Amino acid sequence: MKEFNIEEELKKLPEQPGVYLMHSKNDEIIYVGKAINLKNRVRQYFQSGRMRSAKIEKMITLIHYFEYIVTDSELEALVLENNLIKEYAPKYNTMLTDDKTYPFIKVTIEEAFPRVMLTRQIKRDKARYFGPFTSAGAVRDTIELVQKLYHIRSCSKRLPKEQGMDRPCLYYQMKQCHAPCQGYITEEEYGKNVEEALDFLGGNTKKVVAGLEEKMQAAAAEFEFELAAEYRDLIESVNHIAGKQRITNTNSNAIDQDVIAMAVQDREAVVSIFFIREGKLLGREHFHMAGVEENQPGETMAAFVKQYYAGTPYIPRELLLETEVDDRELLEYWLTQKRQQRVHILTPQKGEKHKLIELAKDNAALVLHQDLEKMKREEARTVGATREIANLLGLEQVNRIEAYDISNISGVNAVASMVVFEGGKAKRSDYRKFRLRTVTGPDDYKSMEETLTRRFQHGKEERRRMEEEGMQEELGSFTRFPDLIMMDGGKGQVNVALRVLNDLQLQIPVCGMVKDDNHRTRGLYYDNKEIIFPPKNEAFDLITRIQDEAHRFAIEYHKLLRSKTQVKSILDDIEGIGPTRRKALMQHFKSISAIQQADIEALRQVPGMNEPAAKAVYVYFHKQEEIE
Asked: What pTM was estimated for this model as a whole?
């Protein structure tokens, strides 16, 4: 890429709406923004004397170059900005970290014999949708209840076109469906059941309960106690479903609303959203936002609204927000276009709507408090533990740790594992396994020497190639060297590692994970001395996890190779028997013992087997030199 002159490129910016992308020197996109006027907006980042947050000032120092995309309108810029933020997750954008989709109940009223089903997408069709719901389980329970109450079909047949093509299904036998697939119910009668189902899904449960109670009492009076019990169970199910729908507004003209509030502390924010549909609180959910430090409340709220409603399939008539947002009119217009009906964004300061916002805010604060406590505990066992290890060893930091282990049985199928922990957490994408090439017999020291030599030699070669090609971004796990190497052993293994690193002219601290007589980690061997620490200690727990993980990864790989060898030694080692013939033999005889007992003629009957191959199998199992 040719040298990017920021001052010259700023002069070329168009006075049009669009989206701009800020890049670091490693080509990483660190910020995405939109603008009504690209020239004015982007130039502001590079003008001295402007008041900016420390976060933005830090970002500006990292900008190596920028690019932009011109759009026809600010609305198009908003949509494109959303898509790019989701695709690239830039470090300095405020990000919605949760990616949740919610279930809806769909009634296919456009069909002659409608169905009730779960869906996570709202399409522009003639179907009726109810939701969103926060629990797919609750949706399935509701659908099952509706099918039982109103005998709504659950099949996917195209009716009436496919009427009479099959026998009635089990639901007809269970008296949960009137079998429209057989024409046992007319379209008009079925339609009445669907209307009642729609009424029920709309929240009118009192009428259903009253009717079921009447039927239950009538059945009991006729001594049909099993039938009465069925009605009783249905009543309980209806009340259970209705109990989840808390009434928030008794006005029959109540509109759909989302109530949104947030709680912020340090770099963390939690946004709570209450789903109100036709006056009923159907559910609530909370979302985490990252990169909120030094943001104004309106900035964080606007980022949430843009990112959340870009992905959700349903948009209500009203959004009740805790705080005013920038570009409110543009957001209203964008949401209106998506909904295809007018959408209002309100920030109520008093009355019932304000009380709902306060309720959402209290929920957000509670969730944030719980999550911060959880995060503190997690930080102590991960990042905090790495700090403790660094202090124990007298190192500046040990953010990246690599641990190695050897696995073999009497030197057979010797393998090595490399596991990586970053910030106290396992980074499985950087794990590597080695099948040893130069070592014969059970020699752990030579095995470790080969493993470390291959690992760091490869890393050095990759780094050299990147330097020659002018590449600055690290390509993979081998190009990244650790802050600390942990060996599954004591002084001997550490000395092997130090010798390899010295030969490769690398300076990386190495310590051994020392075990007690019961094969439990008790401390570290480092700098020619053993460091013992108390067992109830976060550093101790992390070292134990690292050692266990290195051992587990090595053992799993060894088991895999051993199982492959066992299969191969039985059939694949026979001359003329490859994967195709091996498969044919196993399909024909079903077991190795059956193959072993077969004569040459029986082996010849297997598809794909010829005379030489049959003889080879027979010889192999009967240990004969040749067959006359």
From this structure: 0.50
